Amino acid sequence: MLLEDESNGVVKSADRVLDVIELLARWGREMSHTEIAEALDIPKSSLTKLLKNLTARGFVEFVPVTKGYRLGEALIRLSQQSTHSRSLVSCAQPALAEVTQKTLESCALNQLKGDQVEVVATVTSPQRLVSHLRLGDLAPLYAVSGGKVILAFLPDQMRSEYIKTVKMQAITPKTITVKKALLAQIETIRQTGVAYSMDEYTPGIVGVGVPVLSSSGFPLGSLNVAIPSVRYSERVGARAVTVLQAAAERVRRDYIAANEHTR
């Protein structure tokens, strides 16, 4: 039987089905039953029934080797059709423009792609000395502000798996390569809601990033600015944080509202 929330007319089980599909699409690889349950805060017994139905219809596929779930062929076929839901990118574009207008620095929306972070939308600074954040650019989660802040807010099991398997390499002399140091940064990021990359990925560039969180607390993505080191100071950094946090809240609110409306 479908469970309906009479206060807003939302069918809870249908809403959870969409949450599972969106999560698998964002994570970009197989996820275990436990990882999905933790990420979406769904009781394991309820999730088992959802996954059984989705697998039977071909929307989700169970991979015996990894004992994980991934998007199925039926959903891939449907993805070719137009959707009425506004994407996170379209919700973020006005906010990104405002961030650059207020900070005069290049900014980007980033999303998780496997064990990396991808730039999916960007606005370039009008100043002569700029950092170019290019669409499609990929970077290690541990090396950039937008990646660190996503990593910090992943569910515990997903974050632990990443820390366990990642091979950290020195991209610049300042890149963090010790997992203990990364874990310490993650704890600070979880407390403050802000991540920094101090010349750790691109020499001469300071990154400041904040998360865009779903209603369940899962990181839908992150917003960051890239500031040339010669222009960076504590005051500039604090100003960037204020602007980014306001923008992230705007994106989160617009995205949730738009997708609730289409559901």
From TrEMBL:
Q: Does the keyword DNA-binding apply?
A: yes
Enumerate the Pfam families for this protein: HTH_IclR, IclR_C
Question: Which SMART domains does this UniProt record tie to the protein?
Answer: HTH_ICLR (SM00346)
Q: Which GO terms describe its biological process?
A: negative regulation of DNA-templated transcription
Q: Which GO terms describe its molecular function?
A: DNA binding; DNA-binding transcription factor activity
Domain IclR-ED: where?
74-257
Q: Which UniProt keywords apply?
A: DNA-binding, Transcription, Transcription regulation
Query: HTH iclR-type domain: from which residue to which, for each copy?
Result: 11-73
On whether 4Fe-4S is a keyword of this UniProt record, the answer is no
**What protein name is recorded for this chain?**
IclR family transcriptional regulator
Which source organism does the UniProt entry give?
Answer: Caballeronia fortuita
